Amino acid sequence: MTLEEKVFAGMGLTKADLVLENCRIVNVNTREITEGSIAITSGFISGIGDVDELAGEKTRKIDVKNAHVSPGLIDGHVHFESSMLTLTQFARQSLIHGTTGMIIDPHEIANVLGTKGIRLVMKEASFLPVDIFFTIPSCVPSTPLETSGAKLGVAEIKKLIVSKQVVGLGEVMDYPEVLRGNPDILGKIAAAFKMKLVVDGHAPGLRGRELAGYIACGISSDHESITFEEILEKARLGMKIMLREGSAAKSLHDFIPKLLESGISLENFFFATDDKHPADIIKGHMDAHVRQAISLGIEPVQAISMATLNTARHFRIDHLIGSISIGRKANLVILDDMQDFRIRCVVTNGEINPGIKDIKYPKYVLETVKYKKILPDDLKIHSGKRIVRANVIGIVPEQLITERRVEELVTERTFVQPDIERGILPIAVIERHGKTGNIGKGFVSGFNLENGAFGQSIGHDSHNIIVIGTNFEDMAFCANRIKKLHGGIVIANGTIVEEMPLPFAGILSTTGAHETDMKLGNLHAAIKNMGCKLDAPFIQASFLTLPVIPSLKITDCGMVDVDAFKIIKPLEET
Length: 574
Fold this sequence. Notes:
Layout: H1 3-11, E1 18-27, E2 32-41, E3 44-49, E4 60-63, E5 68-71, E6 73-78, H2 87-96, E7 99-104, H3 107-126, E8 131-136, H4 154-160, E9 166-172, H5 175-179, H6 183-194, E10 198-201, H7 208-216, E11 221-222, H8 228-236, E12 240-244, H9 252-262, E13 269-272, H10 278-283, H11 286-295, H12 300-306, H13 309-314, E14 332-337, E15 342-348, E16 351-352, E17 387-395, E18 402-412, E19 415-416, E20 424-430, E21 439-445, E22 453-456, E23 465-469, H14 472-485, E24 488-492, E25 496-501, H15 513-529, H16 537-542, E26 552-555, E27 558-561, E28 566-568, E29 571-572
Parallel strand pairs: 1-4, 1-5, 6-7, 7-8, 8-9, 9-10, 11-12, 12-13, 17-21
Antiparallel strand pairs: 1-2, 2-3, 5-14, 14-15, 15-16, 17-18, 17-29, 18-19, 20-21, 20-23, 22-23, 22-24, 24-25, 26-27, 27-28
């Protein structure tokens, strides 16, 4: 719709396609409820209030019978890949829950497929009836201590940020390098500013002068605060604060009562999920944020504003979405009840409850798992000593941090044995991008498998293959099965116990949310029967390969002492 067409539609010279009558309009611009109608022309809002002059003979009229009508909700920061769903499947599920816009950071796809993968997702987004904007990942790979499928340097980012779909540079996770003045990361930030884009932050626990240095380079938001005092300091220094409520990291229940008690303005606070798993996206998306915020004491219009206009203003897209305003896209949520934020139907681009078609993906995105056949001996750690002292990754349940432990293990037939009674199991990370053929080997405790093994191709951030087990035969079996599936999660005990293919870049299913959730449920049941007591074992495993979270991790290059930021040997020399 051209500007001239918008002018004529607003004046009533072009008649509306659709009029929603008898609305109680949630006006986030003025924080009030107003009564009237909403006229929609070619997917845009052309009239609000008394719109009789805008209706013609062909105008469709719908009486919403005094229902509250809210702007469509916006997720301020999400890695859709964490749902194990493609963007199409993720959008299909989230749209049901009133999410008509989202700011995605395709960080996981970028680590596998680089620029090519990001452009593919951009193309996919253009076919969806949801407004999807991009922040370009700033840290691919996360460290030099791993082999990723791609690298995004300043040159690659400069080529990507010229797209109209891009609104910013993705979360700058490597804050130590920012504070050291690393020219590469500062060059990425400078490139974003040159295009007048925002730069999102990621700075858990950062306070004082270091926080000031981090903000000084122009990073304007954060979603990783650990304490209320931290978000208060960041907000007072000028940062926008994303209140995150994902499947693992949750902050609303802790932070909202304290925010209300403090009495500070909430205009610089908005909502984000960051990571949502399939079971949770089925239950709710941004509507769940709004409901919880209201239940914790935030006034409904304020809560809706934090899920709409506040987000749009931060990313400088409030001229397009984020409010029920003349000239904005007709992205609306019609409610049966505002207090409970119970949704009757959703409108995007003027279409009521639009459908989303499946799309066909190119062959290259389904063939990203590349390594030789794995033999049991490939996964063993050899030693000439009868008793060895091994570095062991200690799982901390429900947390991403790990402990570094040193345990004695026994060697038989020249290779170090697991100790199943003490829960010390071998772990291996297999490089799967076809670049080095590396296999990092070590030990882990906390999964408590009594038999068998499991493996997966989800391993943040480079997504190499992880296998953990009680014996090397089952571990090798899992690795080879994952290769045949072109990615996935496999549990084996002499044969396949359960599996879930993840063929899209080796990290996403191509099926719907309900089917993916069902398969994941079967996997959880199977691994529980093998002795694992962790609530989310596959998530815990996926972060064992992220060498930026303390204290001991493992990549295809070997075991990583995160505190010292170096590769260490799996066995201590005595």
